[in-house]
Structures are given as C-alpha cells and as structure tokens.
Specification:
The structure holds 2 protein chains of 2 kinds.
Chain A (H helix, E strand, L loop, with lengths): L1 H12 L3 H22 L8 E5 L14 E4 H21 L5 H20 L3 E4 H26 L8 H22 L5 H29 L4 H24 L25 H5 L4 H19 L1 H11 L1 H6 L4 H28 L10 H11 L4 H23 L6 H16 L20
Parallel strand pairs in A: 1-3
Antiparallel strand pairs in A: 1-2
Chain B lengths: L1 H4 L4 E5 L10 H16 L2 E5 L6 H11 L4 E5 L4 H10 L4 E5 L10 E6 L1 H15 L4 E6 L4 H17 L4 E6 L6 H13 L4 E5 L1 H13 L3 E6 L18 E7 L1 H13 L6 E5 L6 E3 L11 H15 L18 H6 L3 H24 L2 H9 L1 H24 L2 H14 L3 H32 L7 H18 L5 H30 L3 H20 L39 H18 L1 H11 L1 H6 L4 H28 L10 H11 L4 H22 L9 H14 L1 H8 L20
Parallel strand pairs in B: 1-2, 1-3, 3-4, 4-5, 5-11, 6-7, 6-8, 8-9, 9-10
Antiparallel strand pairs in B: 10-12
Helix pairs in contact in B: 2-9, 5-6, 5-10, 7-8, 12-14, 12-26, 13-14, 14-16, 14-25, 15-16, 16-20, 16-23, 16-24, 16-25, 17-18, 17-19, 17-23, 17-24, 18-19, 18-23, 20-21, 20-25, 21-23, 24-25, 24-26, 26-27
Classes of the chains: A mainly alpha, B alpha/beta.
Chain lengths: ~425, ~725
Amino acid sequence: MSTTVWERIAERGGISPQRARTYGFIYLAVGLLIFLLFALSTSPGQRTTFAFTPGGQSNAIPIPDVSIPSGFLLYFLALVTLFIGSWQLARGFRRINVVLGIVAAVFVIAFLTWAARDSSLNVTGLLSSSILRAVPIALAALSGVLCERAAVINIAIEGMMLSGAFTAALTASIAANVWEWESTFAAQTFGLICAILFGGLLGLLLAVLAVRFKVDQIIAGTAINILATGVTSYLASRILAQFSHLNSAGTYPRFPIPVLSRIPIIGPALFEHNLLVYILLPLLAGVHILLFHTRWGLRTRAVGEHPKAADTLGVNVFKIRYVNVTLGGMVAGLAGAFLILGSVGRFDELMTAGKGFIGLAAMIFGKWMPFGGLGAAMIFGFADALQTKLAILSVPIPSQFLLMAPYLVTMIVLAGVVGEAVPPAADGQPYEKD
Amino acid sequence: MTEDISTKPQVGLVTDIGQIDDGTYNQYAYEGLLRAADEFGLESRVIETAVLEEFESNLIQLAKEGCKLLVTIGSRKGEDVERLAARFPDTHFILVDYTPYARAKNVTGLVFAEDQAGFMAGALAGLMTASGVVGFVGGVDVAPVLKYHHGFEHGVAHTNNRARVVHAYTGSFTDQEKGEAAAHSLLDQGIDTLFAAGGPSGSAALRTAAAQGAWVVGVDQDEWGTTFENGSAPGSDHLLTSAVKRIDHAVYTAIRQALEGKLTGGTLTFNLANDGVELAPYHDADSAISSEIQGKILEIRKALQTRELDTRVGPDGQVTMQGFLPRILSWNWQAVLLPFLAIFSALVIGAIFIAAFDPEVWAAFSEGFFKGLGASFSSIAQAYTSLFEGAFGRPSKIIEGFRIYAQTRDDVVLRAAIRPLTESLRLSTPYIFAGLAVALGFRCGLFNIGAEGQYFVGGLLAVFVGYSIKGFPLIIHLPLAIIGGMVGGALWSAIAGWLKAKTGAHEVINTIMLNYIAFRLADYLLNVGGPMSRPGDFRPVSPEIELSAYLPQFFPNDPSIRLNSGFILALIAVGVVYWFLFKTTLGFEIRTVGANPHAARTAGINVSRSFVLAMAFSGALAGLAGAHDILGVLHFMPNAFSSGYGFDAIALALLGKSHPVGVLLASLLFGFLRAGAQRMQAPPASVPIDIIQIVQALIIIFIAAPEVVRLIYRIRAARAADEAVFTRGWGST
C-alpha cells in the first residue's frame, strides 16, 4: 500500500513518486546540514547583525540594523527545514518549485547568519550588487532568447560581449580623450552605440555562417568566440596597453530615481543604479511583447518551432533568422558595453570570464523567456555577489571555492534539477529550402 | 520456443523488399538457402519483407526465435544489420552484397567480383561490335554497378582498342521509363552492343535495345530466363549472354562454411576462381558468336581466374591506377587544396592585422601613401620572417651547423640551429593529444570544449604523482605519473559526459564551466600555503617532480632543447586512437552514436555508455597533454598553467577532419605556428602572440564553411561533399 501514498504525494506536486521522495530527503539533509555545520558551531553569545542601509551616500530613509542571536536563528531555520522535509515525505507539497525555492533561500539565510556571526551583513548592499552582476547575464540570456527563438544557437554571446566591451571602452575613450568631447555622458553613449552596432555586426557574421553557409552553429559560434578573444587581446596589447588614455571610458553616473529610491531596502537595491541598469526592464518587456504579441514574434516562434510550415505560409525563414540573430548580437554587444560603462569603466583582457556562457545557462533555466532569463540571472548574480561579500567576512572557506559558485550553480541548473527545459523544436538546425 | 518444435538447427532468410520469387537477389539467396538446408539437414525459415520499415523487426524476430544463421541482402540496410548484430552475438548474419565496416565475429559480407564478370562481358562486346561503339547503362552508381561498369570498359578495351564505350546512368534501379530513355539516347550515339546493370530499369534498357536490333548483355542472373522469358520475349535472339553473380552459390558456400566453423566474420569474395561469377550460356545467340570468339572468351576467363589478367578495378568500383603519375592525378585534390587555402587566407588576414595595428606603419602613412605601403610590407615581412625562423630555424645556420659537425664532430652550432625545429615539435606534442581529444569527441557527436580544464586537472594529478611518490625507478614511476594525468583528465570530462547521458545537459556549457572550476581548483591547490604548494616558496607553484618521473629528453645534455619522448608517445596515441575508432567494436559504436544517436539507440547500442566513455577517453587524451607539459617540460606545475590548448584543439580537430592522421598534421602545423609566434612576439617584430588566435579562428571558419573559400577562389564544388555532423542542439541525445 505504501506505493499509493507516494503516488498520492507525487500527484499533488505533479512529479514522479521517486522524485517527490528525493526532494523530501534533500530537504531533510539540508536541515541537518544547517544544524550540524552552522548551528552547532556558534557559541551562545554570538549575534548576527543585518544592516539595511547601504554604505556610501544613499537617498533611502534609514532604518535601524537588526541584531539577532546567531545560534537562536540557526536552530530555528534548521527546524523549519526539517519540518518542510518531513511534510514533503509525509504529505507532499503542491507547489514543488516554490518549496524548493524556499528551502534554498532558508539555506542561504542560514549560511549568511553563520558567516556573519559576530559581524554585520549589509543585506541591501548584497541585493544591490546582485542586481548589478545580474544585468549582463540577463542581457546575455536575452540575446540567446532572440537567436534561439528563431532556432539559431548563439554560443558566441561570450565573444560578442567581449567585443562589445572592447568597442565601448575604445570608442568612448576616443570620443572623450582624442576628439575631446566636452560631455562625458555623450562620449559614453557614443561608446554604447558603437558597442551595440559592433555586436550586431558579429551577430550578422554568425547569421551569415549559420544561415547562408549552413555551418554547424556551435562551431561557427566557437570560431567567433576565439576570433573575439584573439582580436580583443591582440588589440588590447597593441593599442590599449600603450595608450592608456584610450582605455578610460569610465562608468555612467549613478542616477537615483526620485521617490522610489527613498523606499527602505528596495530603494537602494533597485533604484539607485546607473542608467544602463534601468534599460534592462523596458528592454525585457519590449522583447517579451514583441515575441508574444506581435506578428513578428509569431513568425519568429514559428521559424523556431517548424520552419518548413512557416515557409509554406509565406514567412521568409532566412530573413527572420538574419534579423533575429543580428538583434541578438546587438543585445550581446550591449551586455558587453554594460561591463564597461555600467560597472568597471575600463577594458581588461578576457574580462567576460564566462558570463556569456552563464547567460546561455540562464536562458535555458529561464525556459527561453526574457523574464525567465532575468530570474535565472538573479540567482547567478546573487551567487557572484555573495562570493565577494564572503571574502570580506573572512569565512573559513577558501575564496577559490566561493569563486566556483556561479559555475557550479550553472551546472546544477543545467542538469535540470529544477524542471525540464524544452528548447524550440528546430533549435540548431539549418534550414534548407526545397 | 521454436526449439521445442524442431531440434534441427535453424537458418533464416529475411528478404530485401520483395518476395522470394522475384527472379533476382531474393530468389537466388532463397535457392542457396534451400540447397544448404536440404543438404545439411537444417530447418529453413523465411520472412518476406513487404516494406522497408519492417526489415529490421523481421530480422529481430528470426534472431529471437533462435536462428543461428541469418541470411539477408545487405545493399540497402547493411549498416543497420551490422548494429543489430551487436545485440545478437549468438546469431551469425550473412549479408549479400555488403562489406562490413567493423570487424565483428558474427557478421559476414558476401561480395562478388562484378568487375570480372563485367570484364568478360566487355571482352565479348568488343569482339562483337561492328560499329565500334558499345554502351553501358547503370542504375545508381553504387560499388557493384561501378565494378560492372569499369570492368566492362576495360574488357572492351582489352579485345578491341578502337572501340568506344559510352554510358548512361538512370539514377534508379526500378524506373523502367528512364531505362528505355537511356537505351534510346545511347542508340542515338551509334551503339550496336549494350550492357546494362540496373535492376528492372536496366532490363528495360536491354529490351529496348534488343528490339532495335542491338546486341545486349544481361546482368546478375541469366536474363534469358527472366527478362526475355525463356526466349519467348521479342529480341531474345539478341541477348548475347549475361554477367551472372552466383548469389545462390555464395549463400550456400557461406552456410556450409558456417557449419564447418570456418565462418568468422569479415568478407567472403566470390569471383571466377570460386564460381562466384560467370558468363551465362549464349542461348539463342550461340550460332551468331563464332567459335573463334568463344575460344577467346574462354582464354580470357582463364587468365582472369589465374590472375594473369587484372581488371584494374578496385573493390570500391573505382579504376585502380598503375604508375605514379596517374595515381597522383586521380587524387581528390580539393581535399588538400581547401585546407591549404583556408590556412593561406587566414595568414593573409593575419598579415592585414599585423600591418594595420603597427604604430610604425601609422607613422609612415602620415608621411605619404607609398611610404605607408612600404612600411606595411616590411612590417608583415618582418613578422612572417620571424614566424618562419622561429618555426624552422634559419636554413643557412642549419647547413652551417651540419658542415661544422661533419668537419669537427662538434655539434654545438648544429644544436643551436635546429633548436627552433625541435621546439616546434615539442609544442606540437600537446596539440596532438588535445586535438585527438576533441576529434574523438566529435566522432561521438560530442563537442568537448573543455580540453583546457582536462589539461589542467591532468596536469595536477600528474604532478602530484610526480612529486609525492618517492624512491621508485623510472620504469614504474613515469608510467604511474602519465596514468595519473590520463585519469585526471578522464574523470574531469566524464562528469560532463555523465551529465549529458543522465540529464541531457549540453556538454558545451558544462565543459566550459568545468574549465573555470578547474582553474579555481588549481589556484586553490597551488596557491602559497595550499595543499599542493611548494613548501617555503613565495610563488604559487607545486614542488618539483622526482627525477624518476621525467619524460626522457632527446638531448639530455642540452637543457635548451626541450623535445622529449612525449612526442613519441603522441605518435603512438595517434595510432591507438585510429585503431580504437576504426578497428574495435566500441569505436564502431561510438561512431554510430555520433552519426545518429536515435538509430544507434534503436539498434541496441547503449548511447549513455557511449557518451560517458567517449567523453572519458577524450578527457584522458587532454590529460595526457597536461602530463606531457608537466613531466616533459616544466617538471613542476605553476598556477598559471593556462595554454589555450582547449580552443586550439577544436581548430585542430576540424582541420584534421576528426581523423587521427589529419589531427597529427594539423597539430604539427599549429606547433610550428606557435613556435614561430613566440619568436614573432620578441623584438624586432614584436607582434602580440594573440595574432595566432586570430589566425586559428579564421582557419576554423574557413574549414567549417568551405563554401566561403570556394567563393573567394572561385572553385567549383567537386562532388556532393560528405561533411560530417559534429554537434546537435541542446539536450538532444
């Protein structure tokens, strides 16, 4: 009879009995981990302070820090997780992904509480920096969505970002320091536009190789990646290394949004960024509407799912693919420009460090949806931000392991731990007209 | 189950589409089977295949029901049968008209010397023609038809060197209208004798030509009895003879050999010498063929039998050339020309990069256009001269070195002169390993972008074994360290293979992520104070490995020449990978999965296992690259071990068309390029080494898109290119 119980539990969550059981045991294990690793290693007097006002200047209405006894909070969190695990095993949850998210969040909070015992953790700062790190990944994912919805795999996002970053740094610096434009803002915007255009050019190159010449898309993308790495590194050591005034684009100034930025916690986390960060949401919304509520979007998806049928109905498959991949390249160029103008201000060789590939993982995790990609990018951004915070908190974990976190998260996500990902049906296949 | 009914051993026949009385292949195979069953007391079982889709399930049915010998026609789905055979090791599959790819013990192909039969038909046609023009009609240009065709041409030339052979292919074995049309077009060209090898399509051509009064020669079976209905059909008096393939005899012989325990896989060839092919009786045309001609044909038959006379047709149906020059001319030059042009074009674009970003060139251009042009030229010349000298050394110095060595036995100058050459070979070594790694992955449809990470982990394990084990002799310690490198790489890549097999996660992203993780891992282990760091050193490096783990050097007395026995190891690896891929069952399975995972799965190949194994082997090779650099060159591991081999290896595999020998050649090229680039980086040329990456990326693009190269150089496509499928979309396994 026991099988029927499992089947009933699984039925509630809409997953296989075995999987439901596995989740239960995982939750129990997480609870035990919190208990054994974190709770037991705190001493009675230790307190964790959560700060909610970011360092530096901020418009937000200040709210006081919260200080909690570390041990107490950790025992509580361990109990919560163990309860969730037992419930999953005994009765099962209906919303399986939400619960999984909650358990993950509890584990992260427990970890932070433990890491910041006898110390203070700036929650708002952490969130703010997560968002800053999530933006390029979300843009990379969006680039992937644009291409793959039209069934062209764009593995060259990394290279396009790198090229975009290089172009932005160089052209903005030329405008500012060679042509001596008065407005830094204008020079940076010039760099931004150049980066987007150059990204578009590389997108076009990929489209020509993949659509016109029917080159294996992953190989074409890899070639573009190597080309971008080679060209940017070559030019960096030929030009940027010798003329440092050609590599000083700087970043856009912070632009706190009036009123909204005064809200505690959310204000500094979301509304005290530079202009480029604010571009993200309208861009995602725009692409979402284009994809799902316009004729162009319908055609794109048709080309991605069943190009032959689309062709029969008079859609120009090749044109759609050229346009989409070029647009995807432009977005990737923007993502690269963001690394310069939105965060670092100068170009370094290989500065993308796999963000383009992580963006692809975010795209898959986000099920080929613009906002899905954003959600996934937030997780990666958080892992990345966390890693820098922990280095400051002197956690007894070697920093290299913390640096691995975003890559490990990517692999776990790709392994489909959270739901199955189904790509557009024609993804990666060149189209041949009869 | 059926064994209860009958204790006789069972032999089975599954027909190619059609019934056992089709008057050709199926019927003759059936007759051979019946004769054997009768003679040796076997129980024969037959399933007639109605549609192609049922073919495989019919075979499976008979194999499951206990048939120990299964005969079928292999021309259409032979590869599928071969895959199937792996699932039924106790059943021996006999395939008519098929050459097995892999050497399995339970698959035997029966092939025929169609060229000999065609040669005799041609000899007769050459003697019979009055107009001096004879014709050949073929169905589809598959090997058996080509063998008939070329054998026929050579036969005609043998007996009548003034006769001309014209030919036409219908592109079908069934389309009778096309056969008739082909006959008409050849008749218009003046033929008075026609040989056709094209199933019913060819037979239609024969009927048409015979009705018009031309001599005709049938094929495969005695067409007097089939196409010409035992002489009752019009034109049967114009049927000279038929080039017959004794399928019945071949099937009978194969079954007999199997019962005698002599059938052990591979191919059995049936020719004139063992009655596998022959000319049919002349029937109604007998009186028209003079006894002189009949005697001549018998002479030729004998000469072919004793191999005195050669048809000059290869087993693939292509004309075999004699002499050096014709061989060279018949070569597929595009296969060599395209990679060469790809490399050349990449170097040209590289030259543009060199000149365009040289500050001296800029300065010269500001003084005048022609000065600028001159400066560009000298900039490129200087760079590529350095590249050449860095790769090969200075020819004059090498000659000088040899002269001094010959006179004084002093090799100092010579050693200095060949140093660049040895350095190029030394740099080629890890390329060979890494290129083989990616090529092996490609063969399984896997894109291993992570050779870099596997190189790292392989290096880590090799260096660990190298320094931590002490007191062993070289003969034990060195192999241990090398195996360490292989295991490290294999484990690292197997993660990605396993994830792909289990969850469908695409190996491209996973191997890239594993690269980054490997860098961080190495950083942690080797960082000052880390678990594998050198005690008391302020640099992030591992301890020195023991002398007993050094790969022996070619010039032990000259440390500046770093070429070592790892190069030999790499050459061995080329051979081993070739053997593995093309001569073992596992290699065959991996290639099958690479060609079509769905078909492979239906055929019973464990696709998941193939993914994991191919990935692990691939990683082991990449790990060997790391082991070479540690054990043969550096003798310790620095934390900045990165090399760029991972991406280069992709270019190598593409350039070498995923063939081990191709990879070897490509690796030598890249090794020389890299050695040259190192020289180019130094003054006077001072070109950043990244230029090589640009060149490599362009090579990949040009190789992967040969159309681009054809477009640039206006080369027409040679034949329908058989370009390999390398990768597929996300998660499609």
